[in-house]
Structures are given as C-alpha cells and as structure tokens.
Amino acid sequence: MQTLSTLEVTVTTKKGFAHEIEVGLLAQSASISPKFLYDPLGSHLFTAITLLPEYYPTNTEKNIFSQHQAEITNAIGVGGTLIDLGAGNCQKAESFFNSLKPLSYLAIDFSAEYLEEAVKKLEGKYPHILMQCIGMDFSKQLLIPSAIATSKRIFFYPGSSIGNFLRPEALHLLSQIKSQGNAGGLLIGVDLMKEDSVLMAAYDDPLKVTAAFNLNILRSINLHLNSDFRVEQFRHRVKINHAENRVELYLEALEDLTVTWPGNSREFKKGELIHTEHSHKYTIESIQQLLNDAGFEKTQIWTDPKNYFAVIYAQ
Q1: What angle, 0 to 180 degrees and rounded to 10, lies between the N-to-C axes of helices 40-49 and 112-125?
Q2: CB-based burial of residue 70 (10 Å sphere; 0-12 exposed, 13-18 middle, 19+ buried)?
C-alpha cells in the first residue's frame, strides 16, 4: 500500500483546524464541523451505528448495491481507478471490486489512522489492485494527486454523506468531482425524504450508540484545541427541520459551564446547543437538479421498494 502524505494533499493544516474550531465555538450559535466526528474512535463508533437495525441507510443502500450490481457495473464498466470518498472501513467499495475490477483503488478519509488500518486489510485480499490511501479534509477542497491515474476515474461517495453539506457546499464538492473525473463518473448514495418516526429512530437509537458518536466529538475537539470539554456535561439532541428537509444533531449543555482553551473560553448556559451535524434528505428531482447544476449530464437511478434511499450513477 502506498500512503500519500496528508501534507501534500490538504490545504487545511492542524493549526487551521484549531482556528476553524475556535471560530465555530465563539459564534453566537456555537457549532463544530461534522468532520471532527470522525477521529479513530468516532470512525469505529460510526461503523457500530451502521450495524443498528434502526439505522436504515446502510442496509438499504447495501441491498440496492446487491440487487442491482449487474446493472450498476454495466453502466460504469470495468477497469480504471476507483476513488472512495469518506472510505471509512472500505467495505462498501470492496463489494464492487469483483464486478468493477478496478486497476487501482484510492481511499480518502478524514481519519488517516483508521483508513490505513482498513486498507492494509484489503491489500492481502486483492494483491492485483494498486492500493493507495490519503488522509484528507475534502469538505473544503478536493485535490486528487497527479500521481493518481487520470484515465477513467470513478468516484464513489456512498452513505448519503452529501447530505452533510449545505446546497452551495454540496454543489462545490460535486463540481470538483466532475472536473477531476475525466472520462469516468460518480456513483453516489442519497438519502430520500421520509416520515419523522423513521428518522428519529435512526438518529437517536435506543442503545445510544449515536449519542456516544456525537458526544465523542468533544474529546476530538479537546485534542485539536487543547480545550477542557467534559463529555458528562452534555447530552445528544436530535431535531428534524422540515423547512430545510434535514435532520440536525446537537449537543445540549446540562448545566451552566465554561470551556477554556489556550487564549480563549466560551460560556454555555444550561440548555444551550452546539450544532454538530445536519443530514439533508433529498427527492429524486432535487438531487438530479443538484447533479445537473454541477455539470453531470446523464444519471441512472436505483431505489429500494420503500423509496427510502437512492443510488445514482452520474456521468
């Protein structure tokens, strides 16, 4: 496996992360970017979330991949470079290795440590595929190194992670993918709008795994900012914003408290919220329009019987 240096491919440095976090915490309505959810522990916790019966996106998408794999493979074709955005444990991409037969595989994720561990496991199983991985924050800028083959790049962005972006941000990312895809395309998973009860169960599960995942961001922030957040002083909160068609995740202060870090501090009143994530839900029409606006001209769409989720190949 070739591990490409994070310093070569990301614009935002560790110092930049600290500044970004500080700006978010000092805003009138405090917020933390959802990318900081995915430190090594957070990545493992998210993998656990995907195993929960209440968390429908993973199994629904997996079933679409399985039931329509021949059609998806026929649409994409074989060979080329498979570029896995937000790769995590790489299992979703691996499910296509035998059908798509990529010549090379590039895994990209915010948590480089977790990613390297996952890719190392793949190497022994697929020695004929060139494996590479990058720790990158592509939420601001996607930079595929020149060392990666330019012919037929297939971008893979499953799990409806595109829902974490506001529309202008999603459009910016998709436009970057389009500009760097050359003769390839984008295979993307998109969560569709559905009833509140299904969404609440998925984002506030009875075992409180999602709560642990959300609260862990405070420990991640402590490492980046050298702050003194105490996890036990907050609780996980979920809201459904119908006006924006999204689920919103927050951390709620359980008491009046002050968080400090070198050079600054922030007071939180009991009940005050820190926004950590939003997950937009699309219609088929709205995601098609977004892809068209990003420059993709042709789409093929597969959904589940309940229309909970869509898998789209865009060219």
Answers
A1: 60
A2: exposed
- Compute the average pLDDT of residues 185-199: 97
Query: What are the tens digits of pLDDT across the range 158-189?
Result: 999 999 999 999 999 999 999 998 778 999 99
Closest alpha carbon to 104 in 162, 184, 213: 184
Q: How many other C-beta atoms are found inside a 10 Å radius of the C-beta of residue 18?
A: 17
Buried b (16+ CB within 10 A) or exposed e, 197-226: eebeebbbbeeebbbbbbbbbbebbbebbe
Q: 243 by DSSP, 3-state: which?
A: coil
CB 38 within 8 A of CB 109: yes
Q: Which long-range contacts (CB under 8 A, 24 or more apart) does 293-302 make?
A: 293/171, 294/171, 294/174, 294/175, 294/177, 294/178, 295/174, 295/175, 295/178, 295/179, 296/174, 296/178, 296/185, 296/186, 300/71, 300/75, 302/64, 302/67, 302/68, 302/71, 302/72
Q: What is the tens place of the pLDDT at every residue in 241-289?
A: 999 999 999 999 999 999 999 999 999 999 999 999 999 999 999 999 9
